[in-house]
Amino acid sequence: MVTPVLPLTMSGAVVKRRSKIVLGPVDLTIGGQGLTIVLGPNGAGKTTLLRALHGLERLAQGDTVWQVPLDQARARQGFVFQSPIMLRRSVLDNLTYPLRLNGMAKPEAAQMARGWAARVGLDRALEQPAPQLSGGEQQKLALARALITAPEIVFLDEPCASLDGRATREIETILLAAHASGTRIVMATHDIGQAKRLATEVVFMMRGAIVENGPAAAFFASPKTPQAAALLRGDIVE
Ligand SMILES: Nc1ncnc2c1ncn2[C@@H]1O[C@H](COP(=O)(O)OP(=O)(O)OP(=O)(O)O)[C@@H](O)[C@H]1O
To answer: Is the residue at 110 inside a domain?
Structure first.
């Protein structure tokens, strides 16, 4: 049996920018199951935390430990950025690219890409250049491309930030299906409604630190910090 990549354990992690600490020290364990929503005001460090967990940040202190060697852990996780990043090629090519990188034969990759395009409602846009898609379509493509390799964990940085209700609902449906099929999800959002719809766990951040971390039901029912309580009331939290 293949060893799972999770749990992921981050210990004493610090990220600095121009010698200023923007994250940490953070201790966080991402267990094998669940959908974690990262909440917090602008500049709290949500993006930096996701990037650090995914291995995109150089840590000034501390470390992140996966259950498998780092190169394997890298290959078995995905990341969806707030602004989708696409190849300047067709929708089909964007979807087959990660599969081809993993060594899948072209016809098999194309078949899988068609299946995923249908799941995200892009089956009629397969030959269209990806940069011509609308924002919502690009984000759905980015999500499909991150999920097509069946990663064990996916990090998402406010994937619905500039999308309307319909596109947001479509993305949430895809995420819930991925979660139901066993993909671990860690996602930053500003949208409390979205957090309530999706989260099984919540990480609440302020000024580069995790100030609350635990089951979503307990966080929403009785937040421990006044800042989290204010956020849930709809007040402005700075
Ligand atoms: N390239 C950079 N150079 C200097 N400081 C940065 C840089 N990127 C981020 N920061 C700082 O790091 C801190 C954390 O930023 P981060 O983007 O992680 O927050 P966030 O919670 O994701 O915010 P938002 O909700 O606005 O996306 C902020 O104080 C920000 O100003």
So the answer is: yes
